[in-house]
Amino acid sequence: MMLDAFLAGAHQVFAFDTLIYMLIGSVAGIVAAAIPGFTVTMAIILTLPLTFTMGPLQGVSVMLSVYVGGYTGGLISAALLGIPGTPSSVATTFDAYPMARGGEPGRALSLGVWSSFFGTVISTIVLIIAAPPLAMIAVKLGPWEYFSLIVFALTIVASLVGNSLMRGLIAGVIGLGLATIGPDPMMGQPRLTFESSVLMPGLPFLVVLIGIFAISQLMGELEDHGKGPSSDALIPDVIEFKTWAVMREVLMHPVNLVRSSLIGVFIGALPGAGGSIANLLAYDQAKRSSINPDEFGKGNPDGVIASEAGNSATAGGGLIPMIALGIPGSAVDAILMAALMVHGISVGPRLIMDNADLAYGMFVAMVVASLMMLVVCVLSMRLFLRVTDIPKQFIVPTVMICCVIGAFALNNRVTDLYLLGAIGLVGYGLKSLDYPLAPLVLGVILGPIAETNLRRALMSDADWTVFFTRPISAVLLAAALLSVIFSIRSVLKMRKKDRPATDEQNGD
Amino acid sequence: MSQTTAKAAAADAGASAALRARTEVARLISYIVIGLGAAFLSLRASTLPTSRWEPLGAGSFPELVFGVLAVLCLIAAVRAVIDIRKAGGANRLGASLGEWLVARRYSFALFGLLVVYLLLLPLGGFSLTTFVFLLIAQLMIAGISKKTLFQSLIAAVIFSVGLNMLFAEVFNVFLPRGVLFAG
Amino acid sequence: MFRKIAVAAGLLAAAITGPAQAQDYPEKPIEFIVPWGPGGGSDTLMRIVAMGLSEVTGQAVPIVNMPGVGGTVGLAEFTKRPADGYTISQIHEGLYTANKLGITELSYKNFIPVALVTSSPQYLVLSKNDNFSNLEELKAYAAANPGAVRAGVTLGGVPHLHMAMIEEALGVQFSYVGFRDTGERIRAAVGGNVDIVIGDVASASEFVKNGDLIFAGVGTEERTSEEPDVPTMAEQGYDLSMAVTRGVVLPAGTPDEIVEALDAALEKAMSLPDIRAKMTNAGSADIYLGHEAYKAYLDKLDGEVDKVVGKLQG
């Protein structure tokens, strides 16, 4: 029965036309995600009308290949330009960019591609063997557990701060605050908008991300411009990449790879969370368990592996609640579900029983999509590396235009563009004063989830102690406490060690 | 940031303390600005109406967040003042701000261009405004010569008119249209 | 005097340009502003409508998602577009609650209703629990334990309105928990984090089949064809009508000829077998109300919402 369904699904996926469409989808996903400002969600929406005319499994397979490609594509601009191509590749910039700047752009890309591939495969395996029980846990989680999880996730700010814990905390809280501007998440009443039509709809997360990282990074590229004969290209030399050697290198970090992938799977399986959180959490865990955490942020391969395996694994993770229960794990999954629904397939807890061939076909499609992503990336990597040859004069203004288009196309609002400019300037100012930017973005992501669930929890039960009496919630809060203690200890240790020598602003 | 300051520090170790003090003054100003802003927003949030549907109103969370931010900034500011005192105070503030701005004149010029571009976008439409923005920005970075002018023209056309056509015709996504020029 | 001249001039201009426009309408792509994000109920249904409209007219009908502030950002932008029939949009009951709760100045009167194209009947959905498994038991339990039943709604939204209607009809008191959309509410009900929610066939029927949720009543006049075993609220003694209806609108000032042409095109589109099948799959009842009928429906709805909206004021 299971084998029949598996074969039926595989048969449909391996049809020639399906494979061709998937290949196109994979390329489209990679390219869309590689351009800063363009997102996977955007690419999926563009493919949606096309899939209406395809069969259900064919349509979903194509969308999955866009999805998987998209989780990898973000790495390209993260590594080569220092700008996260998608919200899921924020942590990738920490180590892949210094590595590329240090003369190893090929290695940085290869590391990311292989980690993404293994991350997707691991998440697909978890999806196949453990979807129903994991989905049941995910759906039982109430607002208390979500709030505690977010509290825990906020504690990773300490890993992202760079030189000054204080400024890291300030940046994180600024992020939390920025996210409260706009309509209140419960009643939709405007707050802190000062009657301005620009602030009325709130600050979309993607606009903040592009403004903070992309605009400030592009402005930074022109610092000291015109002084001396410094090279025009962003990264001076193109060094060859050793695809197979790097594959071995990735496999030499099995613990990091598996841990990061599992973090990605679990975060992906929680409806409402996603790749944008998973990559930071995986990075944090890799840094904490490393024997020399000081190496992170300077081009450590472990950082690249953690971030890319973590974000790619959320692709499979997000499918867990969808296939097992019919509950979308992310915005992209919601679009996938809508596409299936239009075809008359009811996605719900009975999907695996009623449409087994479809469910198994999706598993097969995930594997095929990740293989395609790998092939496309390996073959086109030379092309991507050429980006580093293009002189600044073209790259900087053009990428800025892409950011403007991406920020606009998100909600088709011109007012978002004014926000983009303002946030870009603030981001550049903060960066110049050596405030770390990642905590700010983390705050913007986590703030609304924290507030919504806190308020929802208190509406469900006005009793505060429920946060401590529900077991999973209590465990998460305890983990958050441990995480804070751990951070304080390591900060104190570092301070003792470095006190005499360091000049605080010497690195960033 | 890192490169310039690192270079400066290496060049003259003695100036390092003074430089550090000056950077610290710049940060102190940022703490004060952010802290005051946060205090103001926290007060604003506290005046938001509560709701009869829930114990926490719309204002509670922002009030708390901005309150914490104000406190953090206060602590940071106090520490910065102590640091500056220790380093023997800051001098030549105006001059070093000037140097800082001059080193980044291209960055700010680019940003200025972006602002003008965004303001004109709803008037001129995507294709026209983008073309002008790209052309000016490219020439500003590369300098004007026959070669750069030619290259910039081609690149500007591709990424303004070309992109607009790609989005409109292939993806059916419409980029901002202008009042004066529809493209 | 000047006013009269202006009106006359306007009429004249409309008479000259109107028919010419209407004859060829549509001669270029029609932008469809959906004031909600991609992947939601409105988005999915309107994409199908757009597909049908495109098939009938031979012009592309691109969807432009413009979410924000309960659907009002997109509608505000829509009112600024030229009233020439090349930008269309969509409204549903949410506009009424947003308007009456003061979130937006816009009301349905700012638009010309063209046609009502979808209607999703709303069900009272119970989470599987030990205390009640149908409407009567719910009433008894809630009466005995005021405030103990947790109702999942979108605060200040249409589900809140429906839940308030039920609360009043049963003469009991629920406590409310706010969620953003139907999917979130249903998930909370499946996980047992709320006790009752408002839901529809598209989002809840699979869980009902699986035994996780129970349909306790539907807010239609007659039982629905998708769930013939579910009694209506009226059968059970509570005369409540609960549905989310979505219709296509044009900006005020659009020439009548365009309105009629679009109405005719939509009617044709919504009768295409393929489109009808897809609409049913996406959870909409088979329904079409043209320009006049839709207008009358909206006016009637206005009075109904007025009666209960006071209960939502927070």
Brief characterization of the structure:
The complex is a heterotrimer of chains A (508), B (183) and C (314). Chain B is mostly helical.
β-strand number of chain C:
10
Largest beta-sheet details of chain B: none
Name of the CATH class of the largest domain in chain C: Alpha Beta
CATH topology of the largest domain in chain C, what is it called? D-Maltodextrin-Binding Protein, domain 2
Structural class of chain B: mainly alpha
Please describe what this structure looks like.
- The complex is a heterotrimer of chains A (508), B (183) and C (314).
- With 508 residues, chain A is mainly α.
- In chain A, 72% of the residues lie in helices and 1% in strands.
- Chain A has helices at 2-13, 16-34, 40-52, 56-80, 90-101, 105-140, 143-154, 165-178, 205-221, 243-251, 254-269, 275-289, 301-325, 331-342, 351-354, 356-386, 392-411, 415-432, 438-460, 466-469, 471-498; strands at residues 182-183, 190-191.
- In chain A, strand 1 (182-183) and strand 2 (190-191) form a beta hairpin.
- The longest helix of chain B has 32 residues, at 15-46.
- The two termini of chain B are 40 Å apart.
- Chain C is of the alpha/beta class and 314 residues long.
- Chain C has two domains: 2-119 and 244-312, Bordetella uptake gene, domain 1 (D-Maltodextrin-Binding Protein, domain 2), CATH 3.40.190; 123-218, Periplasmic binding protein-like II (D-Maltodextrin-Binding Protein, domain 2, 3-Layer(aba) Sandwich), CATH 3.40.190.10.
- In chain C, helix 2 crosses helix 9.
- Classes of the chains: A mainly alpha (508), B mainly alpha (183), C alpha/beta (314).
- At the A-B interface, helix 8, helix 9, helix 17, helix 18 and helix 19 of A face helix 1, helix 2, helix 3, helix 5 and helix 6 of B.
Secondary-structure map with pairings?
The complex is a heterotrimer of chains A (508), B (183) and C (314).
Chain A: H1 2-13, H2 16-34, H3 40-52, H4 56-80, H5 90-101, H6 105-140, H7 143-154, H8 165-178, E1 182-183, E2 190-191, H9 205-221, H10 243-251, H11 254-269, H12 275-289, H13 301-325, H14 331-342, H15 351-354, H16 356-386, H17 392-411, H18 415-432, H19 438-460, H20 466-469, H21 471-498
Antiparallel strand pairs in A: 1-2
Helix pairs in contact in A: 1-16, 2-3, 2-4, 2-16, 3-4, 3-14, 4-5, 4-6, 4-13, 4-14, 4-16, 5-6, 5-13, 6-10, 6-11, 6-13, 6-16, 7-19, 7-21, 8-19, 9-17, 9-18, 11-12, 11-13, 12-13
Chain B: H1 2-11, H2 15-46, H3 60-86, H4 93-103, H5 105-124, H6 126-142, H7 146-171
Helix pairs in contact in B: 2-3, 5-6, 6-7
Chain C: H1 2-24, E1 31-34, H2 41-57, E2 63-65, H3 72-80, E3 87-91, H4 94-100, E4 111-121, E5 123-127, H5 135-144, E6 150-153, H6 158-170, E7 175-178, H7 182-190, E8 196-199, H8 201-209, E9 213-218, E10 243-251, H9 256-270, H10 273-281, H11 291-309
Parallel strand pairs in C: 1-2, 1-3, 6-7, 6-8
Antiparallel strand pairs in C: 3-10, 4-10, 5-8, 5-9
Helix pairs in contact in C: 1-9, 2-9
